[in-house]
């Protein structure tokens, strides 16, 4: 029987693409958590060394538009996903080898680690961009919020499953054991991703590769994407909101410890509570957009506004919380921040998928790449700038609580700016006058 390519992707295919995110998360968590700890504790290196390596991984995300452009020209996303995963897994294994080598030859080991972190960043960018483009073109509008939740929750599953398993097999620790565990995780992750994506793209309408004589230069396409007022506004929105989203990542636990005298164990549980709230917010948006489709409640833009405004309110409350002393409901407020963050994040990702389809289909990957670059750079900069801002304010004030209050309030203001930017997304038509997807448009 002939396959109906116009039917798009069903839930089995969406879950299969989510497995790619699971595999991606499995490799990345070893890079950002396990190798970070090994360098600081076992190798006694300064904390800024792994920090710089992680920054390399984020910095290379600026190349996402070029990788999206490449997949647009080829007409297929699968090779870019598989190729990106190959680069990611090789980079993950190389970083472990470099870390182990650094114990014997510091310069050579760190050089290998730096090259490997660059490889990881390129792999994440190439695979992640093409995966989202594939979803944006194949998922029905009413399912986009739920589909975004599925793939991101499955990435979190990759974090949650790999970290404890890898920790179990790393004891008793040795450089050789680190290399073996990393190599196994990388090999399994690549196999899972390759099998998960195989054949999925065949369910979608075929698009022939662009003829060589018809190909427009990359910077021409990039300029056309940024000439779209909606695409340009959304790029700024992604950057501002992700900057606010990530800036509290490195300061929330120290704030709880300094201001509320919480122990390290208690602040770790507090971070877990926040992540639980993020998951709850994502699931809430997925459920509402599916069950209330066709109504105002299914609008992803509405949930972006709710998520950003709720995040701002929670951050303003945290900024004023120390004045309330022990009576301040810190745990409840951190959970509320997580819920609002999760609602905003999944609605923004679903909207990114919807907006990628605006205009020429040959620009879809470039569009997604621009937004992915804004997200990656903002996320990498947010944590660093948040911590630096706290230190800077503490230079001019004697009370630590005032420094944290200023930074939390600044993050809240950024989220309010993001609300304004999201509200402007429909204010100007695209150059080709293609309307926003119904799942994202004003109701």
TrEMBL record:
Cellular compartments per GO CC: membrane
* Homology family: Belongs to the PucC family.
Query: What Pfam families does the annotation carry?
Result: PUCC (PF03209)
Which PANTHER family does this one have? Answer: 44.5 KD BACTERIOCHLOROPHYLL SYNTHASE SUBUNIT
Q: How does it sit in the membrane?
A: Multi-pass membrane protein
For this protein, the record's SUPFAM superfamilies field holds: MFS general substrate transporter
Give the residue spans that cross the bilayer.
14-33, 39-60, 80-102, 108-134, 146-166, 178-200, 221-245, 272-291, 303-326, 332-356, 368-389, 401-423
What are the alphabetically sorted keywords of the record?
Answer: Membrane, Transmembrane, Transmembrane helix
Q: What is this protein called?
A: Bacteriochlorophyll synthase
Q: Where in the cell is it found?
A: Membrane
Major place of residence: membrane
The family database entries (Gene3D superfamilies) matched by this protein are listed as:
MFS general substrate transporter like domains
């Amino acid at each position: 029987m002939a396959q109906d390519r116009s039917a798009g992707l069903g839930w089995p295919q969406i879950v299969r693409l989510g497995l790619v995110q699971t595999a991606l998360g499995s490799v990345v968590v070893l890079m950002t958590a396990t190798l970070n700890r090994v360098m600081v504790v076992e190798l006694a290196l300064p904390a800024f060394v792994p920090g710089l390596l992680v920054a390399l991984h984020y910095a290379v995300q600026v190349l996402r538009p070029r990788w999206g452009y490449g997949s647009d020209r080829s007409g297929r996303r699968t090779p870019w996903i598989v190729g990106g995963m190959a680069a990611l897994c090789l980079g993950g294994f190389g970083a472990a080898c470099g870390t182990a080598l650094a114990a014997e030859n510091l310069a050579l080991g760190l050089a290998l680690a730096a090259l490997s972190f660059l490889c990881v960043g390129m792999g994440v960018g190439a695979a992640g961009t093409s995966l989202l483009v594939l979803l944006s073109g194949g998922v029905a509008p009413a399912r986009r919020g739920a589909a975004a939740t599925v793939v991101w929750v499955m990435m979190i599953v990759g974090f949650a499953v790999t970290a404890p398993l890898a920790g179990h097999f790393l004891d008793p620790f040795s450089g050789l054991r680190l290399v073996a565990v990393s190599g196994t995780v990388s090999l399994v992750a690549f196999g899972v991703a390759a099998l998960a994506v195989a054949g999925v793209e065949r369910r979608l309408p075929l698009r022939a590769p662009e003829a060589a004589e018809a190909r427009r230069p990359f910077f021409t396409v990039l300029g056309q994407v940024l000439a779209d007022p909606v695409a340009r506004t959304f790029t700024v929105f992604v950057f501002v909101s992700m900057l606010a989203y990530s800036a509290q990542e490195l300061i929330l636990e120290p704030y709880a410890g300094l201001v509320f005298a919480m122990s390290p164990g208690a602040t770790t549980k507090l971070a877990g509570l926040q992540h639980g709230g993020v998951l709850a917010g994502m699931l809430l948006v997925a459920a509402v957009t599916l069950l209330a489709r066709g109504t105002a409640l299914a609008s992803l833009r509405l949930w972006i506004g709710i998520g950003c405004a709720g995040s701002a309110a929670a951050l303003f409350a945290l900024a004023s919380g120390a004045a309330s002393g022990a009576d301040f409901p810190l745990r409840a407020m951190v959970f509320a921040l997580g819920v609002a963050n999760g609602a905003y994040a999944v609605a923004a990702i679903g909207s990114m998928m919807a907006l990628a389809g605006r205009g020429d289909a040959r620009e879809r990957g470039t569009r997604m790449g621009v937004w992915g670059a804004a997200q990656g750079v903002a996320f990498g900069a947010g944590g660093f700038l948040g911590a630096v801002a706290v230190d800077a304010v503490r230079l001019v004030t004697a009370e630590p609580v005032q420094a944290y209050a200023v930074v939390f309030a600044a993050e809240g203001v950024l989220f309010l700016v993001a609300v304004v930017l999201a509200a402007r997304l429909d204010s100007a038509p695209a150059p080709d006058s293609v309307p926003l997807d119904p799942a994202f448009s004003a109701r």
